[in-house]
Amino acid sequence: MSRIGLAARALRLTISRTHADPTADYDAASPSYDTYFSPVMGVHSLAALDEVLIRPGDDVLELACGTGHLTQEIVRRLGGRGSVRAVDKSPGMLAVARAKVEPEVELSPGIELSLEEGDMEEFLLARPTGSADLVVIGWAICYSKPARLLEQVRRVLRPGGRVVVIETRGDALKTLITQLEKVFAADPSLLTGLIRVSLPKDAATVARWFGKAGLTVDVQRDGHQLLPAETPEAALEWVQRSGAAAGFKDAVDQSREQYALDLIRDGLARQVAQHGPLELRHTFVVVTGRSPGGPADGSPVGGGSADAHRKEVGSA
Q1: Residue 115: how many CA atoms within 13 Å on its side-chain side?
Q2: Is residue 300 classed exposed, middle or buried when 0-12, 13-18 and 19+ CB atoms within 10 A define those classes?
Q3: What angle separates helix 203-212 from helix 146-156, to the nearest 10 degrees?
């Protein structure tokens, strides 16, 4: 088979609206997420949070809170007063978040916490207009129609309310994605559902989403992180246990999932034999902004304009 065959199968799946749901992958990754993803990419999540003001008494909404890595930090930064209302589709992730964050809130009776299972957009639609000071979207805007989601973010924000987005870039894990595409191109019948994600090309792409939604952009920057995975086995383990392969379980023929993984591993092994250890880079973007009509002190924590924050930063 060829890429033409893969394209034809993808078209059929698109017409039939057969889309892969990433929830099962996140449920499977929930016990190991804070061992794999959080120690590597969590530092960048916290750095993104540093770009926005969090004041005692703020009302914060967090979309796709996962295991509560950022939720826990938001609670700490509220200084004992305020509210955090978070949502995630994965019951497994939410269970970890509750075990982590609820004990923190018990020590801060002035903080109201709710952790809900559900869809991000539906969660926002249920929120009153002008009811939030900050909206946090970590590694999840790609699972939405971004401009439409951000329109709801603008609606729920108070005048001058802040929003921060950190998201994987479209060229992340390029070596691994290339092997995955080769496997599906060789046997399109392995593909039983489409993984629908809106991964941005760069921070400027997300900034344009902000603009379409009527949000002002304060900070936009690109970054990268070299993953601790130099062998095919380590690479596959990391993406499965970290949630980075979200959607794969529902996109591949379940009876041949291990077969597909073996093919990907063999392809990566051939690359290692030819070119040496793998270098998997997780590229990402950070964009922050505000709803219109806020006070003069609504400027970004670091000061400056969006253009001053476009340099790519990262580790190794």
Answers
A1: 22
A2: buried
A3: 60
Q: Which amino acid is residue 259, in one-letter code?
A: Y
pLDDT, residue 241, reads 86
Structural class in CATH, domain 3-292+301-315: alpha beta
Q: At what angle do helices 33-49 and 69-77 cross, to 10 degrees?
A: 40
Sequence-distant (6+) residues with CB within 8 A of 106 are: none
The b/e string for 122-152 (b: 16+ C-beta within 10 A; e otherwise) is: ebbeebeeeebbbbbbbbbbbbbebeebbbb
> Which of 223, 240, 241, 242 minimizes the C-alpha distance to 314?
223
Q: Cα(196)–Cα(200) distance, rounded to whole angstroms?
A: 13
How many Å apart are CA 112 and CA 135, to the nearest integer? 16
Q: CA–CA separation, 271 vs 225, rounded Å? A: 21
Amino acid 232 reads P
In this predicted structure, what is the pLDDT of residue 184? 82
Residue 99: which of 82, 119, 113 has the closest Cα? Answer: 113
- In angstroms, what CA-CA distances link 196 with 8, 18, 22, 122, 148? 16, 10, 9, 18, 16
Per-residue burial over 46-61, b if 16 or more Cβ lie within 10 Å, else e, is eebbbbbbbeeebbbb
DSSP state at residue 19: B
For the chain, 316 residues long, the average pLDDT of each consecutive 10-residue run is 41 40 88 93 97 97 98 97 98 97 92 97 98 97 95 98 96 87 83 79 98 97 94 90 78 86 92 91 96 63 42 65
CA atoms of 20 and 302, how far apart (whole Å):
39
C-alpha distances (whole Å) from 212 to each of 112, 182, 206 are 32, 36, 10
- Distance from C-alpha of 132 to C-alpha of 57, rounded to nearest angstrom: 11
Residue-level pLDDT at 169: 93
Q: How far is CA 240 from CA 17, 124, 211, 273, in A?
A: 25, 29, 34, 23
Q: Which residues pair with 84 in a beta bridge?
A: 60, 113
